[in-house]
């Protein structure tokens, strides 16, 4: 089916795959498999994602000469494959130019050789990106010539500005091809489509956008590749959150290049995207770091219930181990709810009473605490007894501890260092508590595509409707010490994602200024805790960590 493209027709395969950062030989095999599938589907050209041969983002790995040398060897192997008369490949790889620059490059491989290359011109250096640290910017590219077609390749960020597309148009490009390593966040889909449409409107050319689908530390990439016609209308979308090799046939007629419109499904609901991001982020973190599974404290509360559900959907019930660790303050309701969650999810549930640990620490510290009333110290001891227990089980049996704190808690420091903050990874870290409720409801009513967990509900309704409580003292409720979560989350969103000051956040939220001031103070004061928190999936447009880098020590008052 394959062979040279006819002069009027080009079948291109969008290669939405999951490269592993640093696994060059594995990525070579992934690309070979995708190319074989593309050939089977009749494609003449495979469009892979940004830095597909090394995985994206490779960060400081590219500063190593040995890494760059290995990337070159893998390119030579893949280029040699294309001597078979099958599809050519446009593949992303870090590349040293003749002049010695280190570039984020896309290479065209065809007929057994490197047939052309472009270097990324705009290196993103904001938010989670640090590309200027490791790459040199390339010149504005010229179109690559492939079997009689002039292909305008612009790498990810290069689509976000007009100048690269303009240079490609000036060079006679007929189609714009955009390989991406574009991380998911809740505002990203719209931004990508807006930038793509702007480039199409300026150039009149069709545009092919292909993105990787994977989890990489705190980033998750949703795929969501698409093709846009020269009129700015979508011609085809690739389902997000899973790998795919999707062919698209372009025809050239009367000097215009186009592809027939395919049905475009409606975009998924926000809760579905948040859920799928957490599932893929956790699955790839656990799998790529070689853990047999995860272990977590299941309290009967909503955070651990949702974290457990995500873990089961990501890894399968047999790789998720839940532990209920009651104290004298644990209610019968919590014990029942934890048991019901584990039953619905089909996971193992052990019960380990932390009463003996509390008694032992109480006795050890008693002479030293003499004359001091019980306070938050004793509450934190309970949280730490649980953290210690989970860490011991992790050490003995190998599963990674899954941390369960959400973004509302991480914002205000409502979590215990070396206690419930123990863990290797967190799925809720960038999800506000109000979204935790919404996503839990969504999962109880839906079975996500590809999920390994149950078809039906994953937690009893009562877990969603009861008042959140840390149960660290009798009758404790979160809202005794925090504003109601709807108010807290509203203010946090204004202060964090919207970057408002106290006065603006007060005016926009309509909430009392002292409440906003208190949230601001808690937010600033908790930076030291966040620096010690485990990594977690970036979901919002401004996640803690690389995206929002505030000093721990500062005197700015908001
Ligand atoms: N700037 C800074 N740099 C470095 N360290 C700093 C620091 N400021 C305080 N510290 C240190 O941090 C420690 C205090 O932090 P930590 O020991 O964690 O304790 P702390 O933040 O005082 O208390 C834990 C909070 O989390 C809440 N909690 C706990 C457990 C579960 C939940 C839940 O529902 O999810 C909520 C609990 O109700 C309480 O409000 C002290 O040792 C203090 O010296
Ligand atoms: N009794 C318990 N048994 C097991 N784990 C617990 C228990 N209590 C707390 N944890 C662990 O500590 C985390 C912090 O929980 P806590 O109940 O203090 O507040 P939370 O943030 O409301 O969480 P959740 O909604 O899961 O209860 C829980 O998510 C859970 O992983
Ligand atoms: N890899 C990149 O260049 C990513 C930057 C781009 N603006 C995006 O997030 O989609």
From TrEMBL:
<dbReference type="InterPro" id="IPR003010">
    <property type="entry name" value="C-N_Hydrolase"/>
</dbReference>
<feature type="binding site">
    <location>
        <position position="380"/>
    </location>
    <ligand>
        <name>deamido-NAD(+)</name>
    </ligand>
</feature>
<comment type="function">
    <text>Catalyzes the ATP-dependent amidation of deamido-NAD to form NAD. Uses L-glutamine as a nitrogen source.</text>
</comment>
<feature type="domain" description="CN hydrolase">
    <location>
        <begin position="10"/>
        <end position="259"/>
    </location>
</feature>
<dbReference type="GO" id="GO:0005524">
    <property type="term" value="F:ATP binding"/>
</dbReference>
<feature type="binding site">
    <location>
        <position position="188"/>
    </location>
    <ligand>
        <name>L-glutamine</name>
    </ligand>
</feature>
<dbReference type="GO" id="GO:0009435">
    <property type="term" value="P:NAD+ biosynthetic process"/>
</dbReference>
<feature type="binding site">
    <location>
        <position position="182"/>
    </location>
    <ligand>
        <name>L-glutamine</name>
    </ligand>
</feature>
<comment type="similarity">
    <text>In the C-terminal section; belongs to the NAD synthetase family.</text>
</comment>
<dbReference type="InterPro" id="IPR036526">
    <property type="entry name" value="C-N_Hydrolase_sf"/>
</dbReference>
<feature type="active site" description="Nucleophile; for glutaminase activity">
    <location>
        <position position="156"/>
    </location>
</feature>
<keyword id="KW-0547">Nucleotide-binding</keyword>
<comment type="pathway">
    <text>Cofactor biosynthesis; NAD(+) biosynthesis; NAD(+) from deamido-NAD(+) (L-Gln route): step 1/1.</text>
</comment>
<dbReference type="GO" id="GO:0005737">
    <property type="term" value="C:cytoplasm"/>
</dbReference>
<feature type="active site" description="Proton acceptor; for glutaminase activity">
    <location>
        <position position="50"/>
    </location>
</feature>
<dbReference type="GO" id="GO:0004359">
    <property type="term" value="F:glutaminase activity"/>
</dbReference>
<dbReference type="InterPro" id="IPR003694">
    <property type="entry name" value="NAD_synthase"/>
</dbReference>
<dbReference type="InterPro" id="IPR014445">
    <property type="entry name" value="Gln-dep_NAD_synthase"/>
</dbReference>
<feature type="binding site">
    <location>
        <position position="126"/>
    </location>
    <ligand>
        <name>L-glutamine</name>
    </ligand>
</feature>
<keyword id="KW-0067">ATP-binding</keyword>
<comment type="similarity">
    <text>Belongs to the NAD synthetase family.</text>
</comment>
<keyword id="KW-0436">Ligase</keyword>
<feature type="binding site">
    <location>
        <position position="409"/>
    </location>
    <ligand>
        <name>deamido-NAD(+)</name>
    </ligand>
</feature>
<feature type="binding site">
    <location>
        <position position="529"/>
    </location>
    <ligand>
        <name>deamido-NAD(+)</name>
    </ligand>
</feature>
<keyword id="KW-0520">NAD</keyword>
<dbReference type="InterPro" id="IPR022310">
    <property type="entry name" value="NAD/GMP_synthase"/>
</dbReference>
<dbReference type="GO" id="GO:0008795">
    <property type="term" value="F:NAD+ synthase activity"/>
</dbReference>
<dbReference type="GO" id="GO:0003952">
    <property type="term" value="F:NAD+ synthase (glutamine-hydrolyzing) activity"/>
</dbReference>
<feature type="binding site">
    <location>
        <position position="404"/>
    </location>
    <ligand>
        <name>ATP</name>
    </ligand>
</feature>
<feature type="active site" description="For glutaminase activity">
    <location>
        <position position="120"/>
    </location>
</feature>
<dbReference type="Pfam" id="PF02540">
    <property type="entry name" value="NAD_synthase"/>
</dbReference>
<protein>
    <recommendedName>
        <fullName>Glutamine-dependent NAD(+) synthetase</fullName>
        <ecNumber>6.3.5.1</ecNumber>
    </recommendedName>
</protein>
<dbReference type="InterPro" id="IPR014729">
    <property type="entry name" value="Rossmann-like_a/b/a_fold"/>
</dbReference>
<dbReference type="Pfam" id="PF00795">
    <property type="entry name" value="CN_hydrolase"/>
</dbReference>
<feature type="binding site">
    <location>
        <begin position="297"/>
        <end position="304"/>
    </location>
    <ligand>
        <name>ATP</name>
    </ligand>
</feature>
